Amino acid sequence: MKRIVCGVLAACVFVAALFGQSAQRIDEILDTNAATFGQAAYLILTSLDAISDDTDFQTAFAEMCQFAEQQGFKKGSIHSSAAEAKSISMKEYAFLLMQAFKVRGGAMYRMYPCPRYAYRDLRYFGVIQEDIDPDSVLSGRMMLQLLGQIDTVQGGAK
Asked: I need a surface site. Which of 41, 61, 64, 146 has the fewest CB within 10 A?
């Protein structure tokens, strides 16, 4: 009986290890002082279950461009000058979050959807809590923190 229990327990541990998420990409993002569009795409798309956890940042960026087209993102959320390795600003990330999670903004955002009003609405909703320049380069730690706060705007549902 002990052999069976030990065997089942060992099998459960082995299976759990196979399906466990590697934290390598998240650690890389957290250690970044200047987050990139590729890292932002990776975080957003993995949280939406649109890509797998082992996708690299370059592939995630390409997938985000396709996702933006399919979902009908407003012009400017992923613009032509953006590249996977280009640093992302606070307002650009706010705009991506608003578009990807379909956050309905205020009146100005609905009339003129752009990064500026996305930033202002997320400040109003309490997602962006610090007084940060909208044009400042985003750190990986801040990017992950904002992603964790976006569901509060929608009442806990993504």
From this structure: 146
pTM: 0.79
Give dist(CA 107, CA 104) in Å, integer.
9
Give the Cα separation of 33 and 41 in Å (integer).
17
The pair of three-digit structure tokens given for residue 151, joined into one six-digit string:
């569901």
Local confidence pLDDT in tens for the 158 residues of the chain:
666 655 555 555 554 544 444 578 888 988 999 999 999 999 999 999 999 888 899 999 988 888 888 877 766 566 555 678 889 999 999 999 998 998 888 899 899 888 999 999 999 998 888 788 999 999 999 999 999 888 777 655 44
